[in-house]
Amino acid sequence: MQEHKLGTHDCIQLVPIFNQLTTVELQQVSAIVHEHVYEKGTTLFNAGDEANQLTIIAAGQAKVYQLATNGREQLLYLLQSGDFDGEAALFNPVTRTSYAEALVPTQVCSIQRSDFQALLAEAPQLALGILNEFGKRISQLEGKATSVTTSSIGGRLADYLVETAASFPAQTMFTLPLQKKEIAVYLGTTPETISRKLNEFQIAGWLKKGHGNQIAVLDADQLALQD
Amino acid sequence: MQEHKLGTHDCIQLVPIFNQLTTVELQQVSAIVHEHVYEKGTTLFNAGDEANQLTIIAAGQAKVYQLATNGREQLLYLLQSGDFDGEAALFNPVTRTSYAEALVPTQVCSIQRSDFQALLAEAPQLALGILNEFGKRISQLEGKATSVTTSSIGGRLADYLVETAASFPAQTMFTLPLQKKEIAVYLGTTPETISRKLNEFQIAGWLKKGHGNQIAVLDADQLALQD
DNA sequence: TTACATACTTGATTCGGATCAAGTTTACTT
DNA sequence: AAGTAAACTTGATCCGAATCAAGTATGTAA
């Protein structure tokens, strides 16, 4: 069973920032991409490492944690296929402040800074795609920063659920990709509160809890209206 | 008195993303930059506008507000000389979700999307500089998103004060650039709480309140240690 | 200088959500 | 299938900060 393994060319096509490239440019990119498969539970990179490369998830899933000053870890991103991290490394050597761990067997494409900079001079179109992707990410983060100071916990959880459920058929049961403890940390709250809010939502008829970490969103519209 | 007015060339040199350009490239950029001066209290752009340009503050100061779903306004940025906004517009036509107002007479440089894209193809070095700046902004926003879910109000206020005080000589009185009401909204709290926390900080000996909106930070190190 | 509006402060009360402390379920190991 | 550890739930209590309600400064216009 290795359906999730892909050739280099396919790998690159999965990444949004490379979507707009011509065939020729795609080949140029292929030439400088390195591939690696990480087993479940292994570390993609560590805090304190010097970062010299862009890391792209071709297939699989990884969690990125930031270490807070008090030693606590804050989940920063849940990287899915096509997501990337470490873009700052493409311009300057930086020390990573976060670390990442593979949740499942995960195939990663990486690009070295020096290779990337050389390529950029030849394929300006590439820069546009990346800039575009960065712009999106900034909007997203601005939204998060706003919503965190603006909405209540209930609202943030509701948003998270609607967003997560979006990748599954409507009204069907699915397994939450994160444990409640992790969702809690991600939203800046506690597992207890997550538990209680999910109950409230179920009583309101907006969702249905199943076995283990399964839920079905019944009324995404009402959920989204929370706060 | 027009010391704050600058020629186009000077204007561009103020902007970090253009810092690394060669003289030739700077001239190319100069050619496509439009300048405009907004009087105090006038609107730079409005929510709902279609954005087709990058807006750079050459001299002056502007507030950028985001409208929340409940109709409340959330202060997003306080733009100073050299800051820019609307970078998403450089890649796709977008509708603005925020609006900006000049706090003082403010000189603005703007670049149209079409001009920018044409330029980018000729000056790849420019893309690198912008990408770099974007990377920094993303780190900054990641930090803010983390600190908001992690620290208490006191900690966030302390950070804000230390940051704001940094542009004044140490331990001297200065006037806060925002009203307390606005600081409150910015930090996601209320004027009452700001008032109380400032008292606590004064009693602890970390700052001194003066007349009106003046304060002096006495012990930035202790403040920064808050939470 | 007085009058008025706006910003700010202070106190009393309320409330959301964190924390603490058991239980209970789920999932993994053998 | 039984045993164990981890994750989850539920209840009781506590605390930080929001809200409500006066007040007091500050600044502005006549």
From TrEMBL, chains A, B:
One of its GO terms (cellular component) is cytosol. Residues 151-221 form the HTH crp-type domain. Residues 17-137 form the Cyclic nucleotide-binding domain. Keywords: DNA-binding, Transcription, Transcription regulation. Pfam families: cNMP_binding (PF00027), HTH_Crp_2 (PF13545). GO terms for molecular function: DNA binding; DNA-binding transcription factor activity. Gene3D superfamilies: Jelly Rolls, Winged helix-like DNA-binding domain superfamily/Winged helix DNA-binding domain. It comes from the Bacteria. This is Cyclic nucleotide-binding domain-containing protein.
